[in-house]
């Protein structure tokens, strides 16, 4: 079984970099040849090209929620991701759930059978800075543990 | 009295554009202008940077063809250093370049252009897009995703990143290709070549079934410019410049890319931020020429890979073995090139030298000028640098593909407008067709104006007195 642990985000856009930073740490911990650990800042159909072919996908990404629970960790499945937008103005704005839905239509056999998303409540995602909000940063070790648990790996 | 029609936004084009159509007293089209309204200023803010840095700065001009800027920059750097690349470095650069052709051409055809052709230009815009394609023709959409993923993986393998790779440096490459990665590419490439052939067949069928529209839509004569190799074949990485006129007569041949200024001049118009290059000898605007897939195939005598060469000769028949003029044939030419690039990837990875570690040569020399010319997916790309003794940029000149096609895109809009606006009557469907005409050129407006942003299109129709008659938005 091949698993992909994918951190999504841009490390110079504040809290958006959380996925990136976490996989840098995870890459040091995970030495299993059946588990790939990658970061990416692409989305939409480009993202699809990355995830096709894996059996299991674990995504780590920042999330903006209405109640602004900064630093809160959410464990989500694509089905309970925010509503998907099929008719979109630009390919640049496909969300993760839509991307996975498209993937299941196009590559039903090759898409990961299991997708788990760890989303971390973010505060600033548009400011150009390498620094994250303190509460987001504090979530890092907990997310790492959750991902390792998910992979049945112990520290 | 003239009336003015403006089309905005041009969707599914990278960048931003706006069209104005001026009518004469009788309500017929007087002139049509495709405005590029943004500026980014790369040429200016690169001044003072070291030439070594340019291959990582200039790719940021574009997220679709960063590899072209990366390589043109590195080539200009080679000339500043006065070095000759090792055979492996040159092959690796060609490999990443061909991978970009495949991903960029596949992006344009499958994601942006094919919905116009497969659903028809008058189909509901809500369906006439990649989402509609995924929903209704998933097998076709799937091939697009697959071809792109293959090519992007090659870019990532050589340059660590899928979008803005870091692979080429003045004097060569910064990383060798590992044999296991080479084997991986080799194991998939035949499948991709087959998918590229599928795409060529698709466009060939389309052109055969819609031959009247394909040959008449936005069709007009211009010159053509592109690089060719020593045998006259289509060349993407190196070679010499060739320019043909609208009758297919060769006006310039064997021009060393460094001498581009002997044939090309640029004009500035006060209604667009994008300059208008033209063929010097014929003057402005008579020196209109086109670059990109149509330009390259029109100037060349063949392709250097078997499958693409066969398709090349089929394509040439459309122009009775002379030049092919209609804008829609850009799509056809683009897919032949995609096939050509996929075949070239195969022969590059089959070459034993590709995995050698002889990838870089240095020199202590710093020449005061460097010119890097390359065929980017959208057409000929010029990077021209002037440096001081320490290698700092004194001046930078970039002429990008969309710039070369600027006059032609304006002409294409004019041709479409003339057909759809007669005696003051604007026929429905004009908006879609102006968009489709512009999209044939695959303009990367963010590159050409070095501007950042999305691409919406608006058409303003102006009366002869300059007052606005109607504004159409897509």
* CATH fold annotation of chain A: Rossmann fold
SS strand fraction of chain A:
15-25%
State the distance separating the first and last CA atoms of chain B. 26 Å
Largest interface: A-B, 20 and 18 residues
| CATH homologous superfamily descriptor of chain A | HybD-like
Shape type of chain B: globular
Mean pLDDT of chain A: 87
Keywords for this entry:
heterodimer; A: 155 residues; alpha/beta; Rossmann fold; five-stranded mixed beta sheet; 5 strands; 30% helix; B: Cytochrome-c3 Hydrogenase, chain B; 2 domains; four-stranded mixed beta sheet; 42% helix
Tell me what the structure shows.
Chain A is of the alpha/beta class. Chain A has helices at residues 18-29, 44-51, 96-106, 134-138, 140-150, and strands at residues 3-8, 35-40, 56-63, 73-76, 114-121. Chain A has a single domain, classed as HybD-like (Rossmann fold). In chain A, helix 1 links the parallel strand 1 and strand 2 (35-40). Chain B is 42% helix and 20% strand. In chain B, helix 6 (138-159) runs antiparallel to helix 7 (179-209) and helix 13 packs antiparallel against helix 14 (430-440). Chain B is α+β, with helices and mostly antiparallel strands. Chain B has 15 helices and 17 strands. In chain B, strand 1 and strand 2 (18-23) form a beta hairpin. Classes of the chains: A alpha/beta (155), B alpha+beta (474). The A-B interface holds A 40-42, 45-46, 48-50, 52, 86-92, 102, 105-107 and B 11, 111, 126, 130-131, 134-135, 138, 141-142, 145, 148-149, 152-153, 162-163, 454.
């Amino acid at each position: 079984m091949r698993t992909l642990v994918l951190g999504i985000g841009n490390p110079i856009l504040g809290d958006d970099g959380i996925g990136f930073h976490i996989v840098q740490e995870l890459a040091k911990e995970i030495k299993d040849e059946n588990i790939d650990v990658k970061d990416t800042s692409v989305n939409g159909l480009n993202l699809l090209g990355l995830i096709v072919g894996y059996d299991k996908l674990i995504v780590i990404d920042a999330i903006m929620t209405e109640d602004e629970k900064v630093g809160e960790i959410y464990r989500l499945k694509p089905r309970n991701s925010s509503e998907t937008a099929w008719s979109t103005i630009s390919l640049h704005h496909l969300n993760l759930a839509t991307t996975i839905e498209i993937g299941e239509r196009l590559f039903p056999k090759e898409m990961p059978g299991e997708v788990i998303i760890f989303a971390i409540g973010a505060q600033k995602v548009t400011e150009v800075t390498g620094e994250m909000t303190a509460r987001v940063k504090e979530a890092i070790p907990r997310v790492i543990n959750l991902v390792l648990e998910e992979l049945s790996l112990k520290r | 009295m003239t009336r003015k029609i403006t089309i905005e936004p041009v969707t599914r084009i990278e960048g931003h554009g706006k069209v104005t159509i001026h009518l004469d007293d009788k309500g017929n089209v007087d002139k049509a202008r495709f405005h590029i309204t943004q500026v980014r200023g790369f040429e200016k803010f690169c001044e003072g940077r070291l030439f070594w840095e340019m291959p990582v700065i200039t790719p940021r001009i574009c997220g679709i063809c960063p590899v072209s800027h990366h390589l043109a920059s590195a080539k200009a750097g080679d000339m500043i250093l006065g070095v000759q690349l090792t055979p492996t470095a040159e092959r690796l650069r060609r490999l990443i370049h061909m991978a970009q052709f495949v991903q960029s051409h596949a992006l344009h055809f499958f994601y942006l252009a094919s919905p116009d052709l497969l659903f028809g230009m008058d189909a509901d815009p809500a369906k006439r897009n990649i989402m509609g394609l995924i929903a209704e023709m998933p097998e076709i959409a799937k091939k697009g995703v697959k071809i792109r993923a293959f090519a992007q993986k090659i870019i990532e393998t050589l340059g660590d990143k899928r979008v803005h790779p870091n692979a080429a440096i003045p004097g060569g490459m910064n990383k060798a290709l590992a044999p296991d990665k080479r084997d991986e590419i080799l194991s998939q490439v035949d499948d991709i070549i087959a998918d590229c052939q599928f795409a060529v067949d698709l466009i060939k069928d389309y052109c055969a079934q819609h031959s009247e529209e394909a040959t008449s839509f936005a069709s007009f004569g211009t010159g053509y410019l592109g690089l060719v190799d020593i045998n006259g074949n289509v060349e993407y990485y190196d070679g010499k410049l060739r320019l043909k006129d609208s009758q297919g007569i060769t006006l310039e041949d064997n021009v060393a890319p460094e001498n581009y200024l002997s044939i090309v001049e640029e004009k500035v118009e006060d209604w667009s931020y994008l300059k208008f290059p033209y063929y010097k000898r014929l003057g402005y605007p008579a020196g209109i020429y086109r670059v990109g897939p149509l330009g390259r195939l029109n100037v060349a005598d063949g392709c250097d890979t078997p499958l693409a060469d066969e398709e090349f000769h089929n394509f040439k028949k459309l122009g009775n073995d002379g030049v092919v003029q209609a804008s829609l044939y850009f799509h056809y030419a683009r897919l032949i090139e995609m096939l050509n690039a996929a075949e070239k990837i195969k022969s590059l990875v089959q070459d034993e030298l590709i995995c050698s570690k002889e990838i870089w040569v240095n020199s202590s020399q710093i020449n005061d000028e460097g010119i890097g010319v390359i065929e980017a997916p959208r057409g000929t790309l010029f990077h021209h640098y002037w440096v001081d003794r320490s290698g700092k940029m004194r001046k930078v000149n970039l002429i990008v593909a969309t710039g070369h096609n600027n006059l032609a895109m304006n002409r294409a809009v004019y041709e479409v407008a003339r057909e759809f606006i007669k005696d003051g009557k604007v026929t429905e469907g004009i908006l879609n067709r102006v968009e489709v005409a512009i999209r044939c050129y695959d303009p990367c407006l963010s590159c050409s104006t070095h501007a950042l942003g999305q691409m919406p299109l608006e058409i303003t129709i102006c009366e002869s007195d300059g007052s606005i008659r109607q504004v159409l938005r897509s």
